[in-house]
Amino acid sequence: MLRNVMLETSTTQSDLSRLSGVRQPSISGFLSGNVDISDDMLDRLLSCMGFRLEVVRRPVVPELTRSERRSWQLHRRLSTLLNRESFKEWRPTIEHNLDRLGNRVTGQPHERNLERWRQLVDRGDVPGMHRILTGLDRDSIEMREVSPMSGLLPDDQRREVLHLAS
Fold first, then answer.
1. Distance between CA atoms of 88 and 82, rounded to whole angstroms?
2. C-beta contacts of 132-137 below 8 A and 24+ residues apart
3. What is the pLDDT of residue 113?
4. For helices 110-123 and 84-104, angle between their N-to-C axes, nearest 10 degrees
5. Backbone angles phi, psi at 57, to 5 degrees
């Protein structure tokens, strides 16, 4: 989109850098796709060329692998059971699972995500856990890959979710 507007307005990277105050290497990174551009930054750059960014909000079904979808469905069901009281009951199991995972998980982003789980548990951040359990963004999907929530969903509910997922 940025490239198309630059072509339409005959604006070079150098021109856009001078107009916006954004460094030219950053603009180059946005154009190449090597650097993610926020909606605010894109709107700022487009404004320099006489355009505005219109963000259309609509629901979309994300593309998930079979494994990612099943994991989301299981964690989503678990999320319906998660509250401050259940967290207090589950906490010893979650901490045990974190220790077990810590002994076998290697590499990034898994080690970093395991540490983030530890922080959520240490803070008792139930809303944060709900976001991870139900989120469909790449970060939530990767967090669920090292989820310490195994053994918490009752077997009958687990079987029901897996049956519906097939």
1. 10
2. 132/75, 133/75, 133/76, 133/78, 133/79, 133/82, 134/72, 134/75, 134/76, 134/79, 136/62, 136/64, 136/72
3. 97
4. 150
5. -95, 120
Quick check: helix, strand or coil at residue 11? coil
As given in the structure block, the two tokens for residue 97 are: 């699972």
pLDDT (tens digit per residue) in 75-131 = 999 999 999 999 999 999 999 999 999 999 899 999 999 999 999 999 999 999 999
Q: Is 155 helix (H, G, I), strand (E, B) or coil?
A: helix
User: Which residues lie below 8 Å from residue 136, measured CB to CB, with a gap of 6+?
Assistant: 62, 64, 72
Q: Which amino acid makes up residue 60? A: V
All structural domains of the chain with their residue ranges: 2-47, 66-165
DSSP 78-130: HHHH-SHHHHHHHHHHHHHHHHHHHHH--STTHHHHHHHHHHHHHHT-HHHHH
* Cα 14 from Cα 59, distance rounded (Å): 37
Prediction pTM value? 0.69
Q: How far is CA 150 from CA 28, 98, 107, in A?
A: 44, 10, 21
pLDDT digits (tens, 9 = 90+) for 32-58: 988 889 999 999 999 999 999 998 989
